[in-house]
Amino acid sequence: MLSADPTNPKRYSLAQGTSDATAIVSGAAALVRSKYPDLTAGQVANRLIKSASFLGQKGLTAPDDKYGYGVVRPNKAVTMDIPKGPKEGPLGKLPSDTATKAGGAEGSGSEESGASDEGSSSGSNLPVVIGGGVVAVLIVIGVIFAVARGRRS
């Protein structure tokens, strides 16, 4: 992530971590939530993901292994015409930890027998965690792009 650095003669340096990205994603999500207070957390994530862009990068499709869903664009997330989508968001309901650990055909059989009900309380947060991570990556890329674009101007 490109960040301000008063000790660097160029005034910017590369940093790693999620602290800056978390703040930017939270701000973008807050903007969406303030404009659309009736959306669920998953639907807010949907707006952030659907409005993200790879900004001219050719050949990338979302989700990309390196760039996720692209650069978060808070203004587009608030102004684009985007359907609400499902309440749980664009990632849908992910399998519970119990079903994932069982693996293969046994995992699907244990879901039918009710084993997934045991892990549903811990597994129900998984889409939120994954969605938050994806959005954080989008924000990091957005900040890098914005700073780089600002330096060109």
Structure description:
With 153 residues, the protein is mainly alpha-helical. The chain is 56% helix and 4% strand. The protein has 7 helices and 2 strands, in the order ββααααααα. It has helices spanning 19-35, 41-51, 74-79, 97-102, 104-112, 115-123, 126-152; strands at residues 2-4, 12-14. Strands 1-2 form a two-stranded antiparallel ribbon. Strand 1 and strand 2 (12-14) form a beta hairpin. Helix 1 crosses helix 2 (41-51) and helix 1 (19-35) crosses helix 7 (126-152). It is globular and about 50 Å long. The two termini are 19 Å apart. The relative contact order is 0.18. The model is unreliable at 102-123 (pLDDT under 50).
